From TrEMBL:
Organism: Nesidiocoris tenuis
Domain annotation MTTase N-terminal: ranges: 82-201
Name of the protein in question: CDK5 regulatory subunit-associated protein
Positions of the TRAM domain: 482-557
Record carries keyword Iron: yes
Family assignment from sequence similarity: Belongs to the methylthiotransferase family. MiaB subfamily.
Transmembrane domains' residue ranges: none
Domain Radical SAM core per the UniProt entry, residue ranges: 225-479
Keyword Kinase: no
């Protein structure tokens, strides 16, 4: 799945602003530039005046709109060095989108801060997937408003609500006690400079238009954490699947794929910047189809494996996920490639073959099952039954024997009986997952389930089922992870362990968190030269212990994939 981060708010690290554009410079730098130009060039030539810089049009990608009041000069419509603080909730798509937002705002002269008390603008990137995700955000908005009121310059601080909650609740967000000044849905981030310009005159501004083709393909995301060894690359947006419980198709709109050329450019850039792991992102990454690509000869309609179906018409032709994955893997054989979230319906052998043959495409597959019961799966409109899912698991393990599997499950969906729920427990037990994300069902308005079914499983039963799912999952994950003991695993080191500076953590190919002690190691196997273990290094590790959550090991030597 796209991992839920509702509990982990990202307070994003500040990034040194580089004064690339004149409009982003401080007034003294601007003055210095003007002086320099008049001294170095012919002093009799008139240099540019301040007016010339202020009258530059708004960033090319952002359309000027008549909604911008005429009394705004262009400096106000630009960032004019205002500091933005981002607070990101929800899944990785929101993290990736925030990097697009930051790219757009940086081009418009905004600065970024990691100190909320110094911010002129606070942008909260939100999630609507379950009611408790939204409740947390409401609570936070109230705290932010209180904070804003305490500040002496409070009228100047603007609070913007971005992401899925903006799309779900639209105008009602502005009515709600004026908690926010700006509302922008996931497809309207290009419009943010204009929305911010409007809000600077104390008006509220909103754009929640969904688009059929927006992929932000021409915008190079600016990474929020440049020191991280891994990066997210969004390859598609939206979802056509319409699972009956899910709000995402309503908040993120129709499925559309980003052209392969723009993805490859970003991956090449990331590889040159030293990134060691990319995760391709989308709600259904394996339904990827770049129909603008000339590279794929196929003009056929995608075929689904026996036992899988969709509610929408399958696209024809175009470059597919297996081809994309293969191309991405060739950019840098020392850069790991992962992807999330795939849907079980789109696992043709070609994808499995790419994973089997490309060493840097990680052999870990997220296979969100949601339920183990055929009737519940049917009510959820997942497009497969229990048997088709189990057949797929067997097929995947035949081709990729060492694969690590992860999944998402929902308990307490409308009408779920105790017997139906037991099928989920037996499926978790039978398949055995290394990682699982387990949720109690939360009814969302607008979804088919809201129209068609009754949310009739009481909360205490949902809670009880969640605990029981977790127990079965943990027992099996513990067993599976213990099988790694004695193995040699290649770990990509990501940083210090949360618990102690004397330990580092990284991940193996199967995406399992692995803890190792800090220290120096031979630069390669059998070498007498040693160097310290650093973030971004590949290390061969002898696994000595494991539980349902982590592996622990003894680092042996520096290595490559
Ligand atoms: N496209 C991704 C899902 C993104 S949402 C996928 O299909 O894997 C992440 C997970 O949230 C889903 O897989 C599902 O398990 C869970 N989820 C979605 N809607 C939910 C709801 N209404 N209540 C509880 N969990 C939900
Ligand atoms: Fe939601 Fe289903 Fe689409 Fe995933 S595949 S985003 S669960 S509708
Ligand atoms: Fe992601 Fe939450 Fe939206 S899971 S797609 S941010 S509803």
């Amino acid at each position: 799945m796209l991992t839920q981060r509702a509990n982990n708010v990202y307070y994003l690290a500040a990034r040194k602003f580089c004064f690339r554009r004149l409009v982003g410079r401080s007034s003294c730098q601007l003055a210095r530039t003007l002086t320099t130009s008049s001294v170095c060039s012919n002093p009799l030539q008139p240099g540019p005046s301040l007016k010339d810089f202020l009258k530059q049009p708004i960033a090319a990608s952002v359309e000027r709109d008549s909604d911008v009041p005429p009394y705004f000069d262009s400096l106000e419509a630009r960032g004019a060095n205002q500091r933005v603080f981002f607070e990101v909730y929800g899944c990785q798509m929101n993290v990736s989108d925030t990097e697009i937002v930051w790219s757009i705002l940086e081009s418009s002269g905004y600065l970024k801060t990691d100190d909320i008390f110094k911010a002129d603008i606070i942008l909260v990137v939100t999630c609507s997937i379950r009611d408790n995700a939204e409740k947390k955000i409401w609570h936070r908005l109230k705290q932010l408003r209180a904070m804003k009121r305490k500040r002496r310059d409070n009228f100047q601080i603007k609070i913007g609500l971005l992401g899925c909650m903006a799309e779900r609740l639209k105008h009602s967000l502005l009515e709600e006690d004026r908690l926010v000044d700006i509302v922008a849905g996931p497809d309207s981030y290009r419009d943010l400079p204009r929305l911010l310009a409007i809000s600077s005159s104390n008006q509220t501004a909103i754009n929640v238009m969904l688009s059929r083709d927006e992929t932000y393909a021409d915008i190079t995301p600016v990474r929020l954490n440049e020191n991280s060894v891994s990066a997210y690359v969004s390859i598609m947006r939206g979802c056509n699947n319409m699972c009956t419980y899910c709000i995402v198709p309503f908040t993120r709109g129709r499925e559309r794929s980003r052209p392969v050329g723009s993805i490859m450019k970003e991956i090449e850039f990331l590889s040159k910047s030293g990134v060691k792991e990319v995760t391709l992102l989308g709600q259904n990454v394996n339904s990827y189809r770049d129909s603008s690509s000339q590279e794929s000869a196929s003009n056929d309609v995608a075929k689904l494996a026996k036992g899988f179906k969709t509610v929408y018409k399958l696209p024809k032709g175009g470059l597919r996920f297996a081809e994309l994955l293969d191309q991405v893997a060739t950019v840098d054989p020392q850069m790991r490639v992962r992807y999330t979230s795939p849907h079980p319906k789109d696992f043709p052998d070609e994808v499995l073959q790419v994973i089997a043959h490309r060493k840097n495409v990680c052999a870990s597959i997220h296979l969100p099952a949601q339920s183990g019961n055929t009737q519940v799966l049917d009510r959820m409109r997942r497009g497969y039954d229990r048997e088709a899912y189990l057949d797929l698991v067997r097929h995947i393990r035949d081709i990729l024997p060492g694969v690590a599997l992860s999944s998402d499950f929902i308990c307490g969906f409308c009408g779920e009986t105790e017997n139906e729920f037991n099928d989920t427990l037996t499926l978790i037990d039978e398949v055995g997952y290394n990682v699982a994300y387990l949720f109690a069902y939360s009814m969302r308005k607008k979804t088919t389930a809201h129209r068609r079914y009754v949310d009739d499983v009481p909360d205490d039963i949902k809670r009880d089922r969640l605990i029981r799912m977790s127990q079965v999952f943990r027992r099996r994950a513990d067993e599976l992870n213990r099988r790694y003991i004695g193995n040699r695993e290649v770990i990509l080191v990501e940083g210090n362990s949360k618990r102690s500076n004397e330990f580092l953590f990284g991940r193996n190919d199967g995406n399992l968190k692995t803890i190792i002690p800090v220290g120096e190691l031979p630069v390669e196997e059998h070498s007498n030269f040693r160097k310290p273990i650093r973030t971004g290094d590949y290390i061969m590790v002898h696994v000595t212990d494991a539980n349902s959550q982590v592996l622990k090991g003894q680092p042996l030597y520096h290595c490559t994939i």
